[in-house]
Amino acid sequence: MARKGRTGDSNKSPGLPTKDEILEFIQSASGTVGKREIARAFNIKGAQRIDLKQLLRQMADDGLLSGSRKRLRQPGALPSVTVIEIFEIDEHGEHIGRPVSWDGEQHGSPPRVLLVARQGRRGSGPPPGVGDRALVRLSPSDQSEDDSIAYRAQLIKRLPRERQRLLGIYRAVPGRGGVIDPIDRRQLKEWPVPKGDEGEATDGELVRFEIAKPGRFGSTKAKVIDCLGNPDGQKSTSLIAIESFNLPNEFPPTVIEEIATLKTPTISGREDLRDIPLITIDPADAKDHDDAVWAGPDDDPKNSGGFVVLVAIADVAEYVRPSSAIDKEGLKRGNSVYFPDRVVPMLPERISNDLCSLREGEDRPCLAVRMTFDKSGRKRKHLFVRGLMRSAARLSYEEAQAAIDNQPNDQTGPLLETILKPLWQAYTALRQARNDREPLDLDLPERKIILDDEGRVSAIHTPERLDAHRLIEAFMIQANVAAAEALENKNAPVIYRVHDAPGEEKLTALRDFLATLHIKIAKSGPLKPQQFNSVLRQVRGGEFDQLVNEVILRTQAHAEYSASNCGHFGLNLRRYAHFTSPIRRYADLFVHRSLIRALGLGAGGLSDNEIARIDETATTISETERRAQAAERDTVDRLIASYLADQIGARFQARIAGVTRSGLFVRLAETSADGFIPISTVGNDYFVFDETHLKLIGERSGETYRLGDQVEVRLVEAIPSAGALRFELLSEGKQEKPIKPRRAKSRKPMHRKRRRSH
After folding, report:
1. Average pLDDT value for residue range 510-531
2. CA 454 to CA 358: how far, in whole Å?
3. β-strand 448-451 against 457-461: which pairing, if any?
């Protein structure tokens, strides 16, 4: 039966339901809920459907809804039908799962799901085991039975096991097979391997394995089904991440065959840029050089004091044509993945390190943008050309910076007056415009891992941030903006790099947190980067500097690729597209092709099929980017855990980097290594998690540990294969007023006997 619509002060049109009514309807509905179902339930017709669409979009912007217009749900809530993975069989023999798809950074730990046995069902086969996936129908759990279980699940279909996810390190045990060490820090347990089931595995080898189903009273055992190599070997640490994240690591024969047929283009149809002294400035160990820069004063008398900047980018579209084997493989990979011990490239090395590497003194095809800026650094105009260039010099960031700092070497000395100083003069103007624009100014230094000849960590440090880095970054940002503007002016397809503003839910949490530090921020409505920067300036150099930087970072949305533009909040730009690295990002290659087609720059432009699939492409490359980031992060964690493995018992200075109900995450000051302190080992009190203030506080003592606190810790355990570190807290917490003890019920153990389903 249709519900009667109501008018609420938050709605835009009479007759619409209130936000609370919409949320109540979504929560109570048994099936899929989308815009159509909401309109039918509240009897919304005609023009009011447009008002409903706007209301739902506003609720999504406020963080109240997530999903698509056909399938809406509350953020952090699971759809009624979802896929879970069984990760635990508890002491009662019951199967516990977690959702396969879950945004942990936004919503915290994934909810625990109890798989309920369906009585009297014959012929359905054995229940899923640990590591299995299942399609299930969910219902909210009665948390009075067990508040650790968020959902109860009825099995719809057991899904085929994804064997590539069951990976571990085989350890031989003389005389009785061996064990498999975990590579997943969420499941830190060993899997016994009976003698004869180890296959060809040798001690220390990365293996793919399957779980043998135990009998009624038997223990779970593992069987090796594939041997993948030894990650302890020279420069092979990233092998675990490559296998566990299923990263494409070898190019198929069709790609190799196409590579062999590629030919370098001539000057025909291109603008000759070889007389312009473009130079590359990259890390000292860079093997590919896909961007070059030049700057000089503008000779237009109407732009007195202005500058012309030329940014030339390797013309990857010349070699990678739509629907070719190379193109399909590039889209599948989405981007290059950078590990400390290797690179998994998006494109074959013949392209990235040869044909499209802007080598010093060699002719290379390029797509270039000529930008004109006034003396205040504001862009007046731009022009894209397809050209042929010849790099005048290959410099490292350190070399270029040293020359500007009056310490030139034999290579940079002759370039100082004619090339380097004009570049820095143009950068000075762009820096002024950037300061006026005021993008989000978070201070988040990145660590760099140095490996020795054996592929093991020799040092971990935070590189100095030089003006040379900022110069290249400023020029690349302007080129990216120009690409987005040029395509919009031609009504051409664009895959934008978007970064949405923080949702209202996160902003409310931030306001509550900052209030505990006596820092005021706007009480309602959206915030701009300038307001975040004002907060950051207030704490800079003080006790809460790193803490506030971390909390503001967590407030931000994730950047992604999209065919729809919502601007880039962090950079404070209305339009932004990636253009400057087509060697390592497919998004940039798409933008190159769109520019070539829209501006009539020759062959290799965007195809009709690519235009039709633009949304699918944007989704794909957003997913591959997240996969790459996770794989890179996991590898760094494993390397650092291996580096610290022989320092068990050592003391370290650290900072609390995360506070949860289960314990504290800490980050070591010297190495930035991350580790965990279980709450059961903290102090001699019952500690309560204060989510608003991001702290643990003792009920009786008032002893408090808060996000950002500096502490001393002792390393208790290191598991290099999983990248896991466990610490013991040595520092006493800060003293606060004790809190009122919780009810006795809340002190009950997490594992209580559950009522069986009949």
Report:
1. 85
2. 30
3. antiparallel
Handedness of CA 385, 389, 391, 392 (dihedral sign): negative
Q: What angle do CA 179, 185, 188 make, to 5 degrees?
A: 40
- The two beta strands, 151-159 and 457-461, are unpaired
CB atoms within 10 A of CB 525: 7
Residue 130: closest CA among 214, 218, 201, 242: 214
**Among 750, 411, 315, CA closest to 403:** 411
Average pLDDT over residues 522-532: 85
Residue 625, Cβ neighbours under 10 Å: how many? 20
Which string of DSSP letters, residue by residue, matches 188-257? Answer: ---EEE-TT-STT--TT-EEEEEEEPP-SSPPPEEEEEEEEE-TTSTT-TTHHHHHHTT---S--HHHHH
124-136 as b/e, with b when 16 or more CB fall inside 10 Å?
Answer: eeebbbbbbbbeb
- CATH (one of 1.10.357, 1.10.10, 2.60.40, 2.40.30) for 19-73: 1.10.10
User: What stretches of 391-428 adopt beta strand conformation (E)?
Assistant: 393-396
Angle between helices 586-599 and 325-333 (to 10 degrees): 130
Q: What is residue 145's three-state secondary structure?
A: coil
Output DSSP code: residue 704.
E
Q: Which of 224, 100, 77 is nearest to 159 (CA)?
A: 100
The phi and psi torsions of 9 (rounded to 5 degrees) equal -70, -15
Question: What is the DSSP track for 122-142?
Answer: -SS-SPP-TT-EEEEEEEE--
| C-beta neighbour count of 324 within 10 angstroms | 14
Tokens 């592929």 — which residue?
455
Spatial CB neighbours of 123, under 8 Å, sequence gap ≥ 6: none
Nearest to 137 by CA among 214, 40, 31: 31
- Above 80 in pLDDT, residue 68? no
Q: What is the CATH number of domain 81-161?
A: 2.40.50.140
Average pLDDT, the chain: 85
Two domains, one topology: 19-73 and 648-747 = no
H-helix or E-strand containing 368? Answer: strand 363-373
- Tokens representing 501? 């503003």
For residues 562 and 591, the answer to whether their CB atoms sit within 8 Å is no
Report how far residue 726's alpha carbon sits from residue 717's, in angstroms, rounded to the nearest whole number: 5
Q: Which fold has domain 164-230?
A: OB fold (Dihydrolipoamide Acetyltransferase, E2P) (2.40.50)
- Tell me how far apart the alpha carbons of residues 367 and 362 are, in angstroms, rounded to a whole number: 16
Gap between the Cα atoms of 67 and 79, Å rounded? 10
100 against 403, higher pLDDT: 403
Q: What's the CA gap between 93 and 754, in Å, rounded?
A: 11
Instruction: State the average pLDDT over residues 490-518.
Output: 90
pTM of the model: 0.75
- Strand-pair category, 279-282 with 271-272: unpaired
Type and span of the H or E element at 433: helix 421-437
pLDDT in the model for residue 758:
35
Asked if 594 and 610 touch (Cβ cutoff 8 Å), the reply is: no
